[in-house]
Amino acid sequence: MPKISIIIPIYNVESYLHECLLSVAKQTLTDIEVICIDDFSTDNSYETAKKFIETDFRFSLIRLSNNRGQSFARNIGIEKARGKYLYFLDSDDYLDYNAMEILYSYAEENNVQGIFFGATVIGESKENDSTDISYLKCCNRVYTGNQFFIELNKENEYQSAACMQFWKRSYIVESVIKFYEGIVYEDTLYTLQAILNARSVMCIGNKLYNYRKRNNSTTSRLSGEHLASYVIIYYEVLKLWMNRKNQREIEEGIRSRLNLFHRRINVALGYIGNVPEIKFKEEACTYLYKILVQTKPQFKYVKGISEEWECYIEQFSEIIVYGAGMVAYEVIELLQEKNKQIIGIAISNKKKEQDTYMGYPIKELFQWENYKETALIIVATTKIHHKEIKDNIVNAGFKNCIAWE
How many whole angstroms separate alpha carbon 149 and alpha carbon 156? Predict the structure, then answer.
């Protein structure tokens, strides 16, 4: 039995795959098996993976006969795995060379079922630049799954990415924890189930994973598929919540996940521009979808408009909102309630399929240059990006800019 089974779903990542697989081949802990599942790639990803299979006996390669999605590929990997521990790696990212050795040592020394760890974030553009993902306040202590879930939510350190988790295989298999197939953001449900059923889990401060934040990755594009996935996730999380209603702190944490996906539903609708008809397998999902698109999330990212701000905004007859995510959605709603004149949305890098958001035209910042003197730009993003974005706007020659607090 190898110490670790590393499972890597592969789909059309020829530009990144060699670096990914090389980071696995060079792990300082060598007693591993590497299960690559090619999800019917149409580029040269399969050929790249095949070269590693031919030179390293620890690698195996399964090629699916049609595209089934990342969840299906990961579940195949779980079935084939023989290692004591399981690790899932995304094929466009890569590991520090000592990642598996560190994780294995922690798991054995502390006798835990699962370990969470941090990542270095690599953005392909300025818009995708973001801070690294770290665990700072909950580190190096063994928790029960329930305790861990409560602490992560209390300290605002909850992360659901499966690639930043390391689990004992016997626990995952015996608990029948699998990835929900046919959706995006499948890590959400997997992580909730894994944590809440765990006997022992911990997190460490090490950043062992290198996460490449790509403009065209599966989770960076909004579509009808995303909208349907959000509804399914909401429904499944709602069922978890119903089973935990007598545990107040856990219930609050689960409710925050529900609110997150309710907001994501609103944002997706803002991009799509209408309420598309979606056929769900479960009738309850269809009913829930109708309710969610007609209601607003309980919790908000942004506060209301103060009198001081309203007086300042009142001076401008043209407003451009910078941002097109969940913060921007709520800012636009507030401005609409106050009958403010929004003329459009500014973002750093416009994708071809992005034409409108909540009915307003989306343009890159330079395309709004005719409004440099007259319009007010309101930065509606997470606070961590405010200074950099405001500096970019001012350097581009725009005279009036504020960041929504």
Answer: 10
Q: Where do the structural domains in the chain lie, given as residue ranges?
A: 4-172+200-217, 224-292, 307-403
CA distance 353 to 128: 18
Q: Which of 187, 282, 194 is nearest to 232 (CA)?
A: 282
Q: Would you state the CATH architecture of domain 4-172+200-217?
A: Alpha-Beta Complex (3.90)
Q: What is the pLDDT of residues 56-79, one digit of tens each?
A: 999 999 999 999 999 999 999 999
Q: Which of 225, 222, 224, 300 is nearest to 262 (CA)?
A: 300
Domain 307-403, CATH 3.90.1300.10 — does that match?
no
Q: Give burial (CB, 10 Å; 0-12/13-18/19+) of 20.
A: buried
Specify the length of the chain in residues.
405
Tell me the H-state helices in 244-280.
248-272
Cα 355 to chain center, whole Å?
Answer: 23
The helix/strand/coil state of 307 is helix
Q: CA-CA distance, 53 to 188, in Å (whole number)?
A: 31
Q: Are 118 and 135 in contact (CB under 8 A)?
A: yes
- Bridge-partner residues for 114, per DSSP? 167, 201
Cα dihedral 310, 312, 313, 317, rounded to 10, equals 130
Global pTM value: 0.84
- Is the pLDDT at 231 greater than 90? The verdict is yes
Q: How far, in Å, CA of 313 to CA of 320, rounded?
A: 11
Tell me which DSSP letter residue 272 carries.
H
What would the pLDDT profile of 373-388 be if each residue is shown by its tens digit? 999 999 998 887 888 8
CB atoms within 10 A of CB 350: 17
